[in-house]
Amino acid sequence: MLFKGTMTAIITPFTKSGVDYDSFAKLIEYQIDGGIDGIVFIGTTGEPATMTGEEKKALRDFALKQVNGRVPVIFGTGSNCTQTAVENSILAKEEGADGILVVTPYYNKCTQEGLYLHYKAIADKCDLPMIIYNVPGRTGVNILPETAGRLAHSIPSIVGIKEACGNLEQIAKTAEAINGTQLQLMSGDDKLAVDIARLGGTTLISVASNALPKEFAEIMKYANAKNFDKADLLLNKYDKFVDLLFCEVNPIPIKYACSLLGLCQNELRLPLTPMSEGKAKTLKEEMQRLNII
Predict the structure, then answer these.
(1) Distance CA 249, CA 260 (A)
(2) Alpha-carbon torsion angle 130, 95, 11, 291, nearest 10
(3) Fewest beta carbons within 10 Å, which of 160, 173, 197, 235?
């Protein structure tokens, strides 16, 4: 397996004038020191929609240099324009990424055939290991189990599906459709990590691990060892914390949580805004209760 365990969908620390590279270095080291198994850069949690092409290029260069081969580096390269996704993916390979994360084409709301052809077009031009990302709540497009199976059986460079559809019944059908192929089932939902592991999932691409890399890496170590009781016990400990990380749109709460840990400033870019006062207070109190801060 190319990717296994817990990989952090990392935030992008900002100042009012740009990317905060001092904080970014600190955050990357915090992940690696915490035993994380890989880092996903410029995914949804990294606010790429608000960044310029030049900023993304500088960020990718910095990330590769800072990580320096210690853990796999995956770049988000998705777009609702297939040609742009192809170009982004080729660039990721040229720059030295270990893999790419490609979200479904948002807003266009293509058919299942369109999804298949979208991913095939990327794979035809870029043979980097690809993780396809199913998050219909954000994109309006759902990778159905039959399409996941079709991709798994026909495109060997597609090595994972990050599932964040929130529907365990559908995810179980996807697990069945990809069984026996190279395609790994990956959780894109912290709360469902152990449930998806029970279905054969090998990997969690985590938001919560920005703040708690050691703890969420440990959860998947237990899960991959089939010690689901211990994995559940640890995940349940952070149940309210994870709920609060999604009480407002990601990455608003996790960036606030990381700021409380001294990892970055609580700086977001419009249209995202800082966490509302009441919910921020509740999140801070929960982190204090857990002795995180």
Answers:
(1) 18
(2) 90
(3) 173
In angstroms, rounded to a whole number, what is the distance separating the alpha carbons of residues 71 and 12?
Answer: 18
**Which residue numbers are catalytic?**
133, 162
pTM of the predicted structure, to 2 decimals: 0.96
* pLDDT tens-digit map of 235-292: 999 999 999 999 999 999 999 999 999 999 999 999 999 999 999 999 999 999 999 9
Residue ranges and CATH numbers for the domains of the chain are 5-226 (3.20.20.70)
